[in-house]
Design a protein that fits this description.
The protein is of the alpha/beta class. It contains five helices and ten strands, in the order ββαβααββαβαββββ. 29% of the residues lie in helices and 29% in strands.
Length: 190
């Protein structure tokens, strides 16, 4: 069965975006990016509408931009090749290569995806999707990058998520002040 790994940046006070969806407080640190990349091997990304639109408006252009940093271009090329599954009730199409739009029951669709052949499935952002899947016990691991900032408000990553015991796999701090937290769902959870 494929693992579902939530990979998110968050503030020290638990927000994954500010009050208006802003993420300008994220720290982009190549050392952190490399470390996070080593801890998962996804070939599929799950997105909610808002996060998909944010990624789709940025990453495809980075892959074609010779002035973009090499690490960003490599990340963009990798994202372009991955299967992107978008859950939305309002979008009518998705145009980023290797993307598919699903309007059905999120939980049923993700259960099917977990049993398909393939590598890891990851979720970036998409807090509502994370919350829905956590409520159903479909998340296997959390790979969180805690930014050294207090945002003071915004969207909480773990809003309406049931109490869940976690097993720490790793904690690592970086010169940038970012702390990587890697957990899997505890054996006696759910």
């Amino acid at each position: 069965m494929r693992r579902i790994i939530v990979f998110n940046s968050m503030s020290l006070d638990g927000y994954y975006t500010g009050p208006n969806g802003e993420i300008d407080w994220f720290i982009h640190d190549p050392e952190v990016d490399h470390a996070a990349h080593q801890r998962m091997n996804p070939d599929t990304i799950l997105f909610g509408r808002a996060t998909y639109q944010m990624f789709e408006s940025y990453w495809p252009q980075v892959a074609r931009n010779p002035k973009a940093p090499e690490g960003a271009r490599l990340m963009a090329e990798e994202l372009n090749q991955m299967t992107k599954v978008v859950f939305s009730t309002t979008l009518t199409e998705v145009t980023w290569e290797n993307s598919k739009l699903l309007h059905g029951n999120v939980v049923e669709e993700v259960r099917k995806l977990k049993t398909d052949e393939g590598a890891d499935i990851t979720i970036f952002g998409s807090g509502t999707l994370v919350q829905q899947l956590a409520q159903e016990g479909l998340i296997d691991e959390y790979l969180l990058l805690v930014m050294p900032v207090i945002v003071g408000g915004g969207k909480l990553l773990f809003n309406d998520v049931p109490k869940t015991k976690l097993e720490r796999l790793e904690t690592r701090s970086f010169k940038s002040g970012v702390v990587l937290l890697h957990y899997r769902i505890g054996q006696d959870a759910g």
